[in-house]
Amino acid sequence: MSQTTLRLDPHVHSEASYDARDPPELLLEQAADIGLDGVVVTDHDRISASLRAAELAPEYGLVGIPGVEVSTAHGHLLAIGIEERPRPGQSLADTVARVRELGGAAVVPHPFQRTRHGARGKHIVPAEPDGMETYNAWLFTGYRNRRARAFARRHGYTALAGSDAHTVATIGRAYTELTVPGPREDVTAEAVVEAIREGATGVNGRRVPYHKSAGHYVKGAGRKGFWAARSAGATALSLL
Questions:
Q1: Where do the structural domains in the chain lie, given as residue ranges?
Q2: What 8-state DSSP symbol labels residue 169?
């Protein structure tokens, strides 16, 4: 049987995310223009825009693959190839299991980076995800990408790369190559999920310019501090 190699950006945000601004149509147009075969719109705990993007993808010559970035109790998780959003706030392990029940692939994004809700190793290992983002284009330095790559290799997780794009300008900065059976026009979201589970991937990428990633890092740290302070305040009030 013939095989096809896809260039897929599995970590892209649309205007449905609180920290992004572009509609699905613009994301798809950009992906097609730069030669990708598909993107997975993975908004924060929202899936409607991703379902729309997956439905419209063939009009742009792309493979339609829905998904979502779930906020678990132990960090973020990409759910690739699903059409129903898992409930946020559950453990990482339970969320991984739910993603599989829904027919998707569970991938840990930007692991170890706490300012961006990256999961820690002590939660990742018991959860046994299908893959790990070993190259995220927005990481401030290359250290955590290298750490993620070594961790994935040690535990046998499929390696993926994602742009984590929040605007069209950074789509495809990092992308994953997947080998799937059959001709390009017959590729389905199910085939992409299976390729991830089987580890038939390749990692490609270049980092977002330093000054942009530094700003992104500062914003992430600020958001984490804000929510930590808000949580602490709520706890203090509850004790009064």
A1: 3-208
A2: G
- Residue 162 Ramachandran class (φ > 0 left, ψ -120 to 50 alpha, else beta): beta
**Which residue's entry shows tokens 């500062």?**
218
- Residue 193 to residue 82: CA distance in whole angstroms: 9
Residue appearing with tokens 């995310």: 17
Quick check: pTM over 0.70?
yes
Strands ordered across the beta sheet of 67-72: 67-72, 75-80, 105-108, 131-136, 158-162
In whole angstroms, give the CA distance from residue 58 to residue 124: 34
In this structure, which topology does domain 3-208 adopt according to CATH? TIM Barrel (3.20.20)
- Residue with structure tokens 């027919």? 103
Tokens of 109: 């994004």
Q: What confidence tens digit (pLDDT) does each residue in 17-48 have?
A: 999 999 999 999 999 999 999 999 999 999 99
